[in-house]
Amino acid sequence: QATIVLQEGVQIDEVAVVCESIVAFLSSVEGVQNITHALRPGVNYASILGWERHNFPAQLPGDLKSFLSLSNGLSLTWSIDHAGEELHIGNMHVNDISRIQRIDVSPREFSARGALADGAEEAPLRTVSEALAFDIDSEAHDGRVALVYINGDKDAAEVWFQDLSCKWHFIANNFTDYFRLVVMHVGLPRWQYAFTPLGPDPASKYWLGLVGPKPGMLNGAAGGDAK
């Protein structure tokens, strides 16, 4: 059973359509229950401008602006009946604009950009002299997800994941690509560890195999084009 909470001011839009497809998929998975999605009104230009003034010189990337203008963050949760016990497993979350807050980072932590190639022990390196980072998922399991501006590029940002050892790992070139991954993994816990050398733990692998990811769910899974 799915519950969709329609907050005042919300209109049907692309984000709602994507979330409806996720709800439909989860509803088809045996044992999944208590799917709850809060549809939020988008932010206005004044809110975006206020964020950028407060966090100058960073500017929200175009794709994230588009997403926030449709839905001010995202919250979609679900549980599963496992051997007669309800387990609260899924939590698809993107911070609302007020919670996209700056976090302290060291530029050198972001020199290894990109996924590891097969058989490679290290990702390609680059010179990073400046980095600004902002938390975009304050409910991430066992880690932190950040939008990271590299070397003074203030209107484009990559997405990185910090594991429990405090090491950062590259996930996506932009918010659009990251959101596609969020949709694919339907809020499963610790899915970001698939982008670390350690990889997912056994429990995460079990849930990944049972529920996701589903590549066919990627179509239209972003609020705007990557910038």
Outline:
With 227 residues, the chain is of the alpha+beta class. It has helices at 14-28, 45-54, 62-70, 175-184, 202-211; strands at 2-6, 32-39, 74-82, 85-94, 102-103, 131-137, 144-150, 158-162, 168-172. The strands form 2 sheets. The chain has a 5-stranded antiparallel β-sheet with strand order 5-6-7-8-9. A 4-stranded mixed β-sheet has the order 1-2-3-4, covered by helices on one side.
Descriptive tags:
four-stranded mixed sheet; alpha+beta; 9 strands; disordered N terminus; about 25% helix; about 230 residues; five-stranded antiparallel sheet; 5 helices
User: What is the ordering of alpha helices and beta strands?
Assistant: EHEHHEEEEEEEHH
Q: How far do the termini sit from each other?
A: 37 Å
Helix content: 10-25%
Q: Report the C-alpha radius of gyration, rounded.
A: 18 Å
Residue-averaged pLDDT, rounded? 83
The secondary structure category is alpha+beta
What oligomerization state is this entry in? single chain
Question: Strand order of the main beta sheet, please?
Answer: 5-6-7-8-9
Q: Compute the number of helices.
A: 5
What percent of residues are in strands? 25-35%
How many strand segments? 9
